[in-house]
User: Which sequence fits this backbone?
């Protein structure tokens, strides 16, 4: 292509606001402003589901319906409930598991598979021609970071094949995401995932072969709880943080949760006590599974880390929004959490997040501990 032709081609793509990003580009969507037209994708965490046994109990209970009533396009796909981050990240985008050889041999070109429940991210972008807003919880936060990282899947070009519209072919995976908010993500790891020295019964169950076989049978997918939990350890997460820089052009937010001994859900009580009292662990406030210094991202000082060096300097484009008063399962509204949290309003919390990502709230707005939103609660 001659220089004049290349300039004219770039001008045409710029008019579509889909100029493919080169080494110095930060976004392929140009000046496309965030709005409710951007689809919202809810990314579940460890052991995520759309049904709980015979019950149609979603992981984000009633959140999808609340956002839909407010006028948002919202999707809640599911991925392997008990597997490592790289495997799940591929599923979030492509809607299927990678080949047995892992990501190295997995197809990078998207192949639509209509009629299979909630569509994956690639299908959503193909349908709407808009980048998505991701709201991730727990392990889903790590899945999202891997998906967007240049050392993960961020630079893949899933629509490069001729069968896709010309304006999509230059898009990279990270160009398909406009914003990400992580809720209670174990960004700096938790020590109990490093071999479970306290013998916490729930950890032993989740990593055990019988439970993994049950999840494999229920989900019709392979399960590897032991490998997945090992990734949440502090040493593993420090290595993850060094390897996976933040994606340019994506707005990044984080939220943490906290609880107390009287409020924490009954089956998280042993975790909460270990995290707050056992000297082998963090000995700090948590939401029953993830400590504040792990969910607050990015780390701003060495004092925020229980041990180890700071993550790489390329982390820092995030905005920490604040702390909500809800344990790890109350954050997603699960009705079997006991004792009942009558204080935290999870639907209002996620509606506020969706509005923030859509550009409808002031830039300095943040969640209050009860899940409501106000400028005064921003951190």
Assistant:
């Amino acid at each position: 292509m001659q220089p004049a032709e290349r300039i004219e081609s770039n001008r045409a793509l710029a008019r579509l606001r889909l100029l493919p990003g080169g080494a110095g580009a930060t976004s392929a969507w140009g000046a496309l402003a965030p709005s409710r037209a951007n689809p919202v994708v809810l990314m579940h965490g460890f052991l995520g589901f759309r049904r709980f046994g015979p019950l149609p109990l979603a992981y984000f209970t009633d959140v999808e319906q609340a956002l839909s009533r407010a006028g948002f396009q919202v999707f809640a796909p599911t991925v392997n409930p008990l597997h490592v981050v790289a495997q799940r990240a591929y599923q979030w985008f492509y809607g299927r598991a990678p080949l047995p050889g892992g990501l190295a041999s997995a197809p990078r070109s998207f192949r639509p598979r209509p009629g299979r429940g909630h569509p994956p991210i690639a299908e959503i972008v193909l349908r709407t021609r808009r980048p998505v807003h991701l709201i991730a919880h727990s392990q889903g936060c790590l899945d999202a970071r891997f998906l967007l990282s240049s050392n993960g899947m961020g630079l893949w070009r899933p629509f490069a094949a001729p069968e896709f519209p010309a304006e999509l072919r230059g898009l990279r995976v990270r160009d398909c995401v406009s914003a990400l908010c992580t809720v209670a993500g174990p960004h700096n790891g938790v020590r109990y995932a490093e071999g479970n020295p306290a013998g916490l019964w729930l950890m032993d169950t989740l990593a055990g072969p019988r439970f993994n076989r049950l999840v494999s049978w229920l989900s019709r997918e392979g399960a590897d709880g032991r490998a997945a939990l090992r990734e949440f350890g502090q040493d593993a997460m420090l290595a993850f943080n060094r390897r996976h820089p933040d994606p340019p052009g994506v707005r990044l937010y984080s939220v943490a949760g906290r609880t107390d001994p009287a409020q924490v859900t009954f089956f998280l009580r042993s975790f909460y006590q270990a995290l707050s009292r056992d000297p082998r662990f963090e000995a700090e406030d948590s939401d029953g599974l993830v400590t504040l210094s792990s969910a607050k991202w990015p780390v701003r000082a060495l004092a925020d880390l229980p041990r180890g060096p700071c993550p790489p300097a390329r982390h820092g484009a995030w905005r920490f929004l604040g702390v909500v008063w809800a344990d790890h399962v109350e954050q997603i509204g699960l009705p079997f959490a006991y004792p009942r949290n009558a204080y935290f309003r999870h639907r209002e919390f996620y509606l506020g997040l969706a509005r923030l990502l859509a550009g409808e709230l002031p830039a300095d707005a943040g969640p209050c501990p009860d899940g409501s939103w106000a400028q005064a609660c921003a951190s």
